[in-house]
Automatic annotation (TrEMBL):
<dbReference type="InterPro" id="IPR037401">
    <property type="entry name" value="SnoaL-like"/>
</dbReference>
<dbReference type="Pfam" id="PF13474">
    <property type="entry name" value="SnoaL_3"/>
</dbReference>
<feature type="domain" description="SnoaL-like">
    <location>
        <begin position="9"/>
        <end position="131"/>
    </location>
</feature>
<protein>
    <submittedName>
        <fullName>SgcJ/EcaC family oxidoreductase</fullName>
    </submittedName>
</protein>
<dbReference type="InterPro" id="IPR011944">
    <property type="entry name" value="Steroid_delta5-4_isomerase"/>
</dbReference>
<dbReference type="InterPro" id="IPR032710">
    <property type="entry name" value="NTF2-like_dom_sf"/>
</dbReference>
Length: 138
């Protein structure tokens, strides 16, 4: 892994997260492959495939987030090879009330990237939250 590749990918992910936080659809779509596959927290359970299906997932999230929710990278690790890379991150994602009720809860993000036309693009995106409503064992 070169430091330059890691820095490029880190900057790409930070730009994406800022675009998500600000509701900037063009910024969210930038640097994503046309054949992206995303597995997200809400349905569809089989995920979405392709940039148009990916685009369609964001408006409901932007509406929810406009009510004061945060979307902030807390930690980010990148591993890059010559033409493929992956990254994983933890994000504070929730309303002030949700984060106050469960301050340790973090959105887990995993990204797969590849080089396309001499630049890094996201080809796989996976978001998840830990299950926090487990039944009591008593």
């Amino acid at each position: 892994m070169t430091a330059a590749a890691e820095d490029q990918i880190r900057a790409l992910i930070e730009r994406w997260a800022e675009a998500v936080h600000s509701g900037d659809m063009d910024g969210v779509l930038a640097d994503h492959a046309k054949d992206i596959v995303m597995f997200d927290v809400p349905p569809p359970f089989e995920g979405v495939r392709g940039i148009e299906a990916y685009r369609e997932t964001w408006p409901p999230f932007f509406e929810w987030q406009a009510n004061g929710a945060s979307f902030e990278i807390e930690s980010l690790d990148v591993t890059a090879g010559g033409d493929v890379a992956f990254a994983h991150a933890l994000l504070r994602c929730g309303t002030a009330e949700e984060l106050a009720a469960n301050p340790a809860n973090r959105l887990r993000l995993t990204l797969g990237l590849r080089i396309e036309d001499n630049r890094w693009v996201v080809t796989h995106e996976h978001h998840s939250f830990p299950i926090t409503d487990q039944p009591s064992t008593e």
